[in-house]
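DM from R.C. (forwarded with permission)

"hey, sorry to bug you on a friday — could you get me a structure for this? deadline for the figure draft is monday and I only need the backbone to look sensible"
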Amino acid sequence: MEEQEKPFLIHESAMTYRRDDISGPKYLMRGPRLDFGLVVLTPGEDYQTHYHRTIEEDFFTLEGNIDIYVDGHFFATLKPGDLIHLPPMCPHYLINRGASPWKAVLVKAGFSPGDRVNINWLPGDPAVTIT
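My reply, with the result:
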């Protein structure tokens, strides 16, 4: 087996959240075939509209609620136990309008660093179009 193919164990506390170790994504594994981690958005916090060219992204809600917009339209309020699957080329935006943090498991597959495309879109803007 190659080094990267050996089993490993990691505890969540060994990694940090992107935004001052409070919120954003926290990756526990990056590649070689998928990204796996956690994501937290605090009350009032959002995550910029974006899509992925070739990878799919999944969120499984553990705590709190989050509003998600897909293709420029409100899609759902995710609550604990909800899983959303976002295929490639599917623009999505998340915002925590609740009173408590939202925490979810994050899985992106296959592994393709740099695959993310940001879009300047917020609720109330015209629908998203990908060119």
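R.C.: lifesaver. The beta strands are 24-30, 34-41, 46-52, 56-63, 66-70, 73-78, 83-86, 92-95, 102-109, 116-118.
me: no worries. The two ends are 42 Å apart (CA to CA).
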